Structure to design on (509 residues):
């Protein structure tokens, strides 16, 4: 009997090894049911299109995300779920196909997430990263090629990317919706989706070998602004410990208040009831003219302006890795001539105009054109992220600031964009193979360094280790940052004075 038992045991082991060698589908038990994924030859398990909330369609359009209906069979999770409703993707500016969602599927039924893990056991407790995409709160999705999680999973973390509702489906505000909500608020459905995804991670990630008590949230652009919202909202308390903010936060007090957003919602509805609007095809709704501006200060998800949440110390505590890119200023239309730009600077900065013109030079039309891009960069990304870094550092948190300055290689028209908005993402997550650029050996070195720092921060809140250049903590005295380029080096933040001036003159009050 012992012999037969031993033989059966050996056969089961051989069968397991054979299945692993043949890339057998891994199966994981979640709280809603079992799911199957894909096993790569390098041992990385991938689960794509995992539902974390019920489809927000029909009566659930413009409602907080609802629980998933449990299933009994094994659900195949081997392909990305649909990207949220938005326009058809097409390359524009510096953003080629690697930076865009797949052409299809695109649907309101979009509340899915993806998991990459190299854990051999659910006892491992690997550090977890949850990635939140950008897209101006009107586009984007977790299926973008540059958001692939395999490379970071190989380093030893569990990588999760999530979907959330965008545009009119994610941020529509209306008095009828406020009344029916039960919390006297409306809008911010996209942010509530993010909270629901983080709650799913808290409850389920241990089954993938992840540690629910060692979670980092990360995002870029609107995804970075979302990270900032998650750190500000009481609904996300206890769901993460660290944050990575790449080019975006909300310290300008420009988010609409609920009452003002409701007025815009009434205009958009144009007399139609919420019932009528819920019965409209998604494509019809998308054609309605609107002034949607993303997150709303609704008194529930966001109790007050985010700058005020942080000033009052009501934010969720995090260690922070934060920064922005050298060439990510955005202009709509042609740049102004030097004379007109100088007039604008005088209007904005008043008695400090001469000082401002030393930072944003306008002695020639060409200089003024560059200065306008630099001012745009600082207004949209530099000043808000600098303010967040300064606040967290003052509160004793570990803060590490970067500047991505590597001119992303390109040919033809794309060559003029430099270190453009989103250009750092393939470097930070070691995904240059998806970046659609003629990368050189120097780029792979930058990607190796950045992704190593990101991994270490995700692991323990500090990017430093023996063998890597020292990345000093950011504080009020030294204001040191890591500048990523062909020769990456830690330097003082030379533009801190202009960011301080910009904040004082444009946003402080």
């Amino acid at each position: 009997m012992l012999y037969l038992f031993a033989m059966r045991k050996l056969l089961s082991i051989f069968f397991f090894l054979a299945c692993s060698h043949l890339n057998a589908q891994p199966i994981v038990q979640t709280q809603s049911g079992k799911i199957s994924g894909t096993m790569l030859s390098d041992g990385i398990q991938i689960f794509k299109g995992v539902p974390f909330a019920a489809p927000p369609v029909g009566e659930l359009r413009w409602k907080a995300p609802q629980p998933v209906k449990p299933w009994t069979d094994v659900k195949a999770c081997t392909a990305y779920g649909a990207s949220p409703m938005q326009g058809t993707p097409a390359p524009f500016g510096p953003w080629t196909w690697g930076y865009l969602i797949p052409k299809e599927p695109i649907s309101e039924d979009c509340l899915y997430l993806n998991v990459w893990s190299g854990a051999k056991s659910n006892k491992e407790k690997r550090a977890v990263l949850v990635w939140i995409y950008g897209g101006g709160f009107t586009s984007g999705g977790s299926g973008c090629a540059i958001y692939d999680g395999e490379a970071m999973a190989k380093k030893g973390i569990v990588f999760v990317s999530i979907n959330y509702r965008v545009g009119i489906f994610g941020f529509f505000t209306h008095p009828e919706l406020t009344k029916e909500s039960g919390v006297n608020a409306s809008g911010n459905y996209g942010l509530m989706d993010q909270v629901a995804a983080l709650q799913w991670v808290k409850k389920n990630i241990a089954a993938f070998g992840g540690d629910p008590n060692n979670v980092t949230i990360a995002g870029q652009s609107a995804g970075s602004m979302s990270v900032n919202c998650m750190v500000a909202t009481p609904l996300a308390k206890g769901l993460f410990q660290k944050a990575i903010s790449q080019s975006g936060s909300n310290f300008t007090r420009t988010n609409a208040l609920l009452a003002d957003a409701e007025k815009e919602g009434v205009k958009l509805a144009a007399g139609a009831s919420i019932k009528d609007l819920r019965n409209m095809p998604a494509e019809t709704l998308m054609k309605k003219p609107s002034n949607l501006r993303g997150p709303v200060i609704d008194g529930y998800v966001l109790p007050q302006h985010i700058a005020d949440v942080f000033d009052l110390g009501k934010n969720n505590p995090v260690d922070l890795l934060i920064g922005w890119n050298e060439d990510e200023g955005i202009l709509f239309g042609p740049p102004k001539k030097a004379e007109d730009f100088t007039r604008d600077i005088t209007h904005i900065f008043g008695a400090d105009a001469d000082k401002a013109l030393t930072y944003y030079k306008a002695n020639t039309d060409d200089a003024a054109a560059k200065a306008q891009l630099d001012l745009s960069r600082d207004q949209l990304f530099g000043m808000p992220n600098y303010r967040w870094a300064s606040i967290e550092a003052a509160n004793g948190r570990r803060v590490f600031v970067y500047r991505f300055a590597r001119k992303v290689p390109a040919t033809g028209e794309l060559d003029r964009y430099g270190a453009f908005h989103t250009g750092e993402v393939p470097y930070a997550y070691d995904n240059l193979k998806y970046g659609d650029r003629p990368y050189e050996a120097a780029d792979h070195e930058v990607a190796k360094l950045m992704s190593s720092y990101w991994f270490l921060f995700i692991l323990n809140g500090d990017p430093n280790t023996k063998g890597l250049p020292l990345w000093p903590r950011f504080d009020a005295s030294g204001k040191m940052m890591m500048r990523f380029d062909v020769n990456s080096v830690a330097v003082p933040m030379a533009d801190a004075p202009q960011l301080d001036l910009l904040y004082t003159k444009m946003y402080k009050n």
Summary: Residues 135 and 222 are 6 Å apart (CA to CA). Residues 1-22 have pLDDT under 50 and may be disordered. The radius of gyration is 24 Å.
